[in-house]
Amino acid sequence: MQVLKQGRTIGKVRRGRRLAAGLIAVALGVAALTACGSGGSSSGSASDTLTVALPIDSPTSFELTQQCSSPMFQLAYEPLIRITKDGGYEPGIAASWQYSSDKTVFTMKIRGGVKFADGTDVTRDSVLNTLNYYKSVPGLNDGYIKPWKIAAVDKDSIAITSPAPFAGMESILSDSGNCNNGMIISAAGLANPDKLKTATFGAGPYVYDAAQSQNGDHYTYTPNPLYYDKSRQNYKKIILRVIADQNTAMNALASGQIQVNMTGGAQLADQAKSKGFDSTVGRVQATAIMLWDRAGKLTPELGDVRVRRAMALALDRDSIAKAVGTAITTQDQFTGAGFPGHDDNLPSKYTYDVNQAKKLLADAGYPDGFSMTLEVNSDDPDATIAVNAAAAQLGKIGIKLDLKSLPNSSFFTDFAAKKFSAGAVSYGLYGTLPNEAYRLYKLPYSAVWNPFASTDPDLDKAYDALNASTKDTFEANAKQFNDTMTAKAWYVPIVAVPQFIYSKGIDVGKRDPMGQFAISAWAAKK
Amino acid sequence: MLSVVIRRLIVAVPLMGVISFIVFVLSSLAGGSVGQAILGPTASAASVAALNAKLGADRPVLVQYVDWLRHAITGDLGLSVVSGVPVADTIASRIPVTMSLAVGALLLVIILGVTSGAIAAIRGGIIGRLAEVLAVLGRGLPSFWLALIAVLVFGVNLAWLPVSGYVPFADSPSGWIQSLILPVVVLGVSEIALVAVVTRAEMLSAMRSDYVRSLRANGYPWKRIVFKHVAKNAAGPVLTMVSLVFVSLIGGTILMEQIFGMPGLGTLMVSATTKHDLQVIQGLAVFYTAMVVVVFLLTDIASGYLNAKARAR
């Protein structure tokens, strides 16, 4: 019996040893795996590699005409006009440029000695052919560029003639947010337009390396040895990683997998601050109730400006801004704070005043209010939160909003089809000259944001004055336009939502007027 | 058995056709258009219409579907209208990520779920109850919450493991394992409990059966009874459960890929749906359907091997 007990004891000891050995082996395995730290991802961690997180809605194609500005294009294509690190414009392929006195002709002199990454020269004809290509295909800037006449002036200059005065050429022809029409394509690319989707044909500071990339996940760029400005090549490799979740991107920044997080997320501003990241404001979005039916075809009440103004005055924007989230500010006039034409003392601005709102409604013949259906973009969380809060406040003056929530895919098509008299949505605030800052009024964007094609003689007058502005009169005319637009209450702005980029150890500079950054000029902080 | 396989395959072809048609129609009914999705909300109606015409997206839905089907039958899933990349290539490049996650989680589930379920059944007592408690806990914890906690603890604070991304095995085997540990564990944890509970229940049921009592009465060694008879009889239902769990894990990869920033089929599906990329959506629908068919076919074959009755069916 004793022998049996001893045998059992020995067995237990052996099992215990085996278990201990197994645990030690697992521990060693884990230690070996984690010894390399957390660098075992597809991101770069060396100081000569810059890894940037992009949002999920980033382009999955290199088709320039069909996408708005993205670092994917900025790195591989050289624009006619570059955005600078401090948010201005400087010569790119266009060595210089000038407007005619009536701002209908824009003349550019093409820089000599610039080469495409494929080794061919960038010439005047490269520019002509590229711009004509952009005119020939569907694109985001059709409203701007389709009416252009493009012609050679001499052996190294070209002129663009617009049918009406146009003062926003720098933005259109830069690598900024105005959708890539300044990016010049080589002859090889223009000869094979289908390839423009999957490969790059530019003269930019970097070259897209397809072998080290995976479409939709990460895009790798290496320096273009033929690039003319070495100050824009601060890394041996730049990796753009698409990260769907903003929290994941923030964690990747915290763990050093990425150095710049461009996935946005204003609600993460506090977290970024607590972790010591740099937060830089990029694009600013305004969230508004857009009152499209200004003639009152679907909702007769909206045809009266007093009703529209009553709606604008009934909103307690401070409380709505708090509800939407951190870093959100109120917007009580057409133009946002810090943008051209904004005026803190604007006579027509929508200061919260329920009594005045009720009086205006009564004067318009609707003392008991009215009901209307309002379309809400369910893929736009800021607009959704803001309009729900706004609906409750409008209820206090008797306006009952029936909110119809629609996803992005049908939101825009439905209001373009005039199915709704009003909708809640976020839109970018831009700081460039008239056509961007006030695109909510005139073509081409007004075709989208102005589905009922409303016009107004007072606005026309203010808009024309703005377009004819000189440098000295611009701000005054911008303020006048802002005052007129605010008084007409076509749009009921509620809050302004900044889009942050978060970074660690990288000098990202300042945004340009369209909210973009000169990514190729980024470098480690000194 | 061969007839079972043939029957399954015969059903699979029209099944994929029906599913691809349903997906195509539903995607078309979702509103919007590929032109609108590519050009974005601020594009003019004329630009959207021109792009839709260029891409053939302005044709009737049925015509588009028949055109797609005609090519798909020959194995050509077409090009993504958004990226211009062949759909088959795009899907193929993403399969390793999703399969690494799903198969990794499945192995974890089988090893831990079956083992703990079997131990709970054989040992009973505290271990059995502990397994049940863990099962409830595992099912109760939301995956996204668990993922966020795991990332914060092991990725950000301890910096033991990467918080996001995927490393192909060919690039770095250790990097591949590192990139999978957190998502695989989070993905598998709730299913471990499920398999453990089923394993325990099936083994207890088998252990209480008459033939086990007879074997014990005849002096057969307990270990032999458990491993040769009880385990084999319990294996059938557990196997069926494991196959269902695998299908569930494939679905779960969509969330894990989003949270851990991994370029798998789930991320591709989300992106393609957002961009109205019908060709990619269709390709993925066919692939997912085919995968489920294959999983169930393998389950049938394995069940037949384990159970003579199933073999006879």
What can you tell me about this protein's structure?
The complex is a heterodimer of chains A (526) and B (313). Chain A is of the alpha+beta class. Helices cover 32% and strands 22% of the residues of chain A. Chain A has helices at 2-35, 71-76, 124-136, 142-145, 169-172, 187-191, 246-254, 269-274, 305-313, 317-324, 354-363, 381-395, 408-416, 434-437, 446-449, 457-467, 474-488, and strands spanning 49-54, 81-83, 89-91, 94-99, 105-110, 149-154, 157-161, 206-214, 218-223, 237-242, 260-261, 278-291, 329-330, 370-377, 399-406, 422-429, 491-503, 506-507, 523-524. In chain A, the strands form four sheets. In chain A, strands 1, 8, 9, 10, 11, 12, 13, 14, 15, 16 and 17 form an eleven-stranded mixed sheet that branches. Chain A has a four-stranded antiparallel sheet with strand order 4-5-7-6, with helices on one face. A two-stranded antiparallel ribbon of chain A has the order 2-3. The radius of gyration of chain A is 28 Å and the shape is globular. The N and C termini of chain A lie far apart (79 Å). Chain B is mainly α. In chain B, 80% of the residues lie in helices and 0% in strands. Chain B has helices spanning 2-29, 34-39, 45-55, 61-73, 87-123, 125-140, 143-157, 173-207, 210-217, 222-259, 265-274, 278-306, 308-312. In chain B, α10 runs parallel beside α11. Chain B is globular and about 85 Å long. In chain B, 42% of the residues are buried. The mean pLDDT of chain B is 85. Classes of the chains: A alpha+beta (526), B mainly alpha (313). The interface between A and B is large, with 62 and 62 residues.
